[in-house]
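Worked example

This section walks through a single chain of length 81. The input is the sequence exactly as stored; nothing has been trimmed or padded.
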Amino acid sequence: MSDAGNSVLESVYHTVMDKYLNVDISSQQKKQKIINEFYTEGAFLLKGSVCYIAEKLEMSEPTVYRYLAKAKQQLKVRSNP
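Given that input, the structure is written out below as C-alpha cells.
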C-alpha cells in the first residue's frame, strides 16, 4: 500500500475508532458498525484496506469480508426505501 493510502486509512481508522470507543454494544455489533463506517467513508476503495482493517480490528480477512457484505446489504436497503 502506498504511503498516501496508508495515511488515509490511518486517518479514517482513528476517526471511526474515536466515535465507537465507548459505545456500549456487543463486540459483534460494534465491529459491524465500524465496518459500516469504513465502507461509507470509502476506505475499502483503497488497495490493501481489507488486510489493514483486519489487522487493526484483530480479525481475519474473511471476517472483514463477511462484515463488508452485510454493510453493503444494510446500506443498500436504507438507500432504497
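What to look for: The two ends are 37 Å apart (CA to CA).
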